[in-house]
Amino acid sequence: MKQIFKYIILTLFVPALFIKCANNNTQNDPWKTANNIVETIGSISFKDTTYNITKYGAIADGKTLNTSVINAVIEMCSVNGGGTVLVPEGTYLTGAIHFEDSVNLKIDKGATLLFSVDPKDYLPVVKTSWEGIFCYNYSPLIYAYGKKNIALTGEGTVNGMAIPENWWRLKGKTKYGWKEGMESQLDSVGQPLLNQYNKNQTKVEDRQMGEGHYLRPHFIQFFECTNALIEGITVEDSPFWVIHPVLCENLTIRGVTVNSNGPNNDGCDPESCKNVLIENCIFNTGDDCIALKSGRDDDGRAMNRPIENVVIRNCTMKNGHGGVVLGSEISGGCKNIFVENCEMNSPELDRAIRIKTNNNRGGVTENVYIRNLNVGQVKEAIVRINCSYDSKEGQGNFIPTVQNIFISNVQSQKAQMALKLDGLEGENCIKNIHIENCSFNGVKEDNVIKYVESLNLKSVHINDELINESL
User: Which residues, if any, are the signal sequence (predicted)?
Assistant: First the structure.
């Protein structure tokens, strides 16, 4: 195992800085901050009035479109002071559902909301964020804009019915059903146009996408909402990102199961949110299980709203590109992130912890605390930090910073490598990384560590050999 660190030193091209074992970056226990975040989020309650959608004309045959009925009942509930809109046992077809203030939409046990795969059922367009760029696009399947005290709860299921024959083919890859001659988000009127809007900083209201632009809608998006809860539901087969809160404050996502293995099917992607608790959830996804974001490139810098004060605990990550991921759309910054007591295990899980960014994104990612992870197996690395993610985007002038990362008590059984940390040559973009009391077993290859300043390993075991090193 000495050979591993011989390799590290040879590939470390910034001046090595030896540092003492830090007392967890602060004289105070940072995990007290996590407790304070949870207390700040608190809980929400609703008026003790229930509106059963079947009493207002909803039909549970899986064929009749119930969009107008469900939205009318939600509006009625809100106008009357709020309460619970109940979706009872049965299967209900619907288009876009839009929240109003003080409403708990409860999907009862045995109930399923099936979402139409006709894009016209998600018009007119609404204000959204698509891969960290603001625009007007198809409505998310479940959407709230500027609402307060809202919840999506219950033991039932919401199913986006996305498959290669409908939404997923718009990814533009044959793996997901696309064929030569078909439209896709890669067409000039799709993602390339949106990227140009971002680069030019076109007014958001002039970024009209939707029909004819082939950008898939998100499943659940709360946008600029305060005091929100998503709890207990099962989410299946999303067209795009699954749970995507944007610019929200005081948000809890608890006991949610995500089973969605399509393209860009990230499980939960809070973007530029403050005070977020994600706990007791299960993620089986086609992309990142959880990914924290804060806007892409120019939009992220212009908004300048970090994702901050996030607690992730007691979650299970199965298939996915990463268990807990920060980035890549993280131009607005990321800080005060706490991850603990999670299980990660699947031959189809690429990495456990990942931070991904590049010099188009920029931004500062800092004060990240991770502890008590049980990792069975991953395909690549247990810890992956990449400051040159997605090189096909070309080179920019916005050097990202990743600093003050503290990882402790991680146990893993099988991985290609323990650590893969890639900075940028000539830039101190990765620094002050602490890994302590970890055991990485079944590791096949040496660590890869390039352009990193201030890496401290204490009581780290790789394949049962002890390592105490400061670089």
Answer: 1-22
